[in-house]
Amino acid sequence: MKKKLIIVSNESDRKYATYLQQLISAFDDSDDKQVGTKDGSVDAVVWDEKHYRDNLNCLNSTNHILFIGDNESAREARSNMNVKFYAVGMSYGWLGAQAYMLVDDGSLNKDNYGEFKELCEKYGKTFKKELDLHFSPSEAEQQNQQAKPDDAIALLPVPLAFLSPVLGVASAAAIHGQAAVNIAGQALAKAGDMLQAAEAKDQQYSLLTLILYMDGLTEFLGE
Question: What angle (nearest 5°) sits at the alpha carbon of residue 158, between those of residues 169 and 156?
């Protein structure tokens, strides 16, 4: 008998629910290897949160439900779930017949981007555009610890040296100190990375969907 899977997502995350449906429906097993769920063994449907809440009275403890993304229903459900996978801000987990899949906001950065690319290579996931991330939480923390209290104040308002290509970073360092320049540099790097935040999160969700399909979905469904 086929397993039934209800995938609950917001409209903004529906593409990942559809991607998971496509993976489930693909006939990708070989004679000697099962890839993800067994071919033809799972029926998956996608519901939005309103449809899920409207049909709560019709669901029981045997219905397998996967929540993708962050909404009220997902937060309620995952509060008691066990985390089965976590890496680079991506996680999934489950308890009983309910599971979740979530990417933390702003979790991809210079420090962990190498690990993300390694996971992409491991699971054969490619993207058309490679991200160009510069903010390093570890470097920022180190610089904050080294900075004197007056360093941050010295940057307000932003000195002319940061704005002028003639004066440049060397002059800024001479005027305000290298620690202040480093702090400002990390702030600018973080602001620059925010411009790529949506694309970074999209890549994380796409990879996480594939990882869940390959490594977690069969166990969750009890196949």
Answer: 125
Residues 6 or more apart whose CB falls under 8 angstroms from that of 193 comprise 109, 133, 134, 135, 200
The one-letter amino acid at 89: G
Which residues of the chain, if any, have pLDDT below 50? Answer: 152-156, 158, 160-164, 166-167, 169, 172-173, 175-176, 179-186
pTM over 0.85: no
pLDDT of res. 167: 46
Q: Phi-psi category of 60—alpha, beta or left, where left has phi over 0 and alpha has psi -120 to 50?
A: beta
d(CA 10, CA 166): 49
Q: Which residues of 119-149 are buried (b: 16+ CB within 10 A; e: fewer)?
A: bbeeeebeeeeebebbbbeebbeebeeebee
Phi and psi of 15, rounded to 5°?
Answer: -60, -30
Tokens 């995938």, residue? 7
Q: Are 133 and 193 in contact (CB under 8 A)?
A: yes
Residue position matching structure tokens 């054969």: 124
Residue with tokens 């290579």: 121
The continuous run of DSSP H or E covering 190 comes out as: helix 178-194
Q: Which domains does the chain have, with CATH numbers?
A: 3-105+199-221 (3.30.379), 137-194 (no CATH)
* Residue recorded with tokens 């890549």: 203
In order of 9, 25, 79, 135, 198, the CA distances from 106 in angstroms are 20, 32, 21, 11, 9
